[in-house]
Amino acid sequence: MMLEWVNRVLEKDTMSLHLRSGAPPVAKRGRPGSWQLVQIDDTPLHEEELLQLADDLIRLADEERDSFIEQDTETSQVLQVKNMRIVIAYPPFSDALEITIVKPITTKTLDDYELPEKILDRLQNKAEGVVIAGAPGAGKSTFAAAIAKFYADQDKVVKTIEKPRDLVVDERITQYTIVDNDPEHTGDIILLLRPDYVIFDEMRKTRDFVVFADMRLAGIGMVGVVHATRPVDAIQRFIGRVDAGLIPSVVDTIIFIEDGSVSTVLALHMVVKVPTGFADESLARPVVEVKDFMTGNLLYEIYSFGEQIVMIPIQATEEKQNKEQKQIAKRVRKEIARIISGPIETIPLRAGRIEVRVPESQIPRLIGKGGKVISKLENKLNISIDVSPINGNNHLELEKEYGDIAGRKPAIVERRKKHVVMILPSQLAGKTVNIYVGDKHYGVFTVNEIGEIRLSKSSKIAKHVAQASDYNIPITYQAIS
Questions:
Q1: pLDDT-derived band at 391, boundaries 50, 70, 90
Q2: What secondary structure does DSSP assign to 176-228, as a single string?
Q3: Which of 77, 198, 203, 375 is a plausible cystine mate for 88, CB 3.0–4.6 Å?
Q4: What CATH architecture is 110-305?
């Protein structure tokens, strides 16, 4: 009777049934990522009922086709009855007799996931070390079964390693369990079978990851399934278990499953570079880059630091660097404005180095005799400075830096012997323009025949314009006629 009742309950959209002595039966109903825990009956279950159900389930596992006893100890049993995974726990392992029955409520193909062509192409032609990650119940095993079918449909020999064997796959795919709790021995046997791809379900222990790496390095395409709450956690599972330099050879693609769908795909590859945030080029080393596969954005870097392997989030590092670079550039412009006259542009190159562009006539003054002035400035600011002249496209460069400010364009400011000069494009010669310092309107001026507006150094507006330029406040113009 109890077995018939269980079958009736599982006919509905039930993901798992949880039966415990002394408590009412409950079930998870819905789909991966969207389910509810529902009480099936108000009456608590008796231990005698559950013992009879356990005996019936063990008999089915022993007698039914496609059913077997996966694990049998004095305090627990793991059964596979057709497509149902059953765990029976007895005291003292559990504080009360408990039976949990899990069954897949859906099977999918990769077409059902509506993946972009870019991801399908990677799975078909490039990805050889795939890790499927996600929280428990997210739909990882369903996706793993879909990938198994995907490869089998391409006339590939596909095998699985599962404990317990509960993936729903077709007859073309042979499912293996861990032999004598020895994943290395299981891997050795499967290597003799020469598969094209192996699906390794439920990787948890260090030995599982080592076997995954060994089989992948032997040339077999591997798809592993791990529990993880974030995509990057799947990579963390390999650090310390696999040599950092081998990680991209073992894992090249992370697929994160959330609410039954593919939410994130990461790609890994190895480069030799100076890690983000390092200044000295002598610190170049092999770095594993972790990128968002769809956007190409660099998310993490993995490299050795001393005796440790570190994984650094790059987005946060870059945001911090950008803030520091802006502060450094502001300080550099302020110090150089005390030495020379004219416009000053700064272009951060990397940590600890910056390019400074000034009028060509001012370069000797900035460098100083024998490089003394620039060396003194570098020591004061603790930064290397590359000096170059402002080129003929300076108006375009300023426009890139400041953009189009309320319909206005930036002007170049130079200090000369008797004048502060605003240099505008030559095509404005003879035109009348409005001049602005920051957001403040400073007057209407006529551009001379060579595209300049000359202000006497003694005038108040000349002093304001020069000071604003020193502090990199944009001086802008707007043509009137």
A1: low
A2: E--GGG-HHHHHHHHHHT--SEEEE-S--SHHHHHHHHHHHHTT-EEEEEEE-
A3: 77
A4: 3-Layer(aba) Sandwich (3.40)
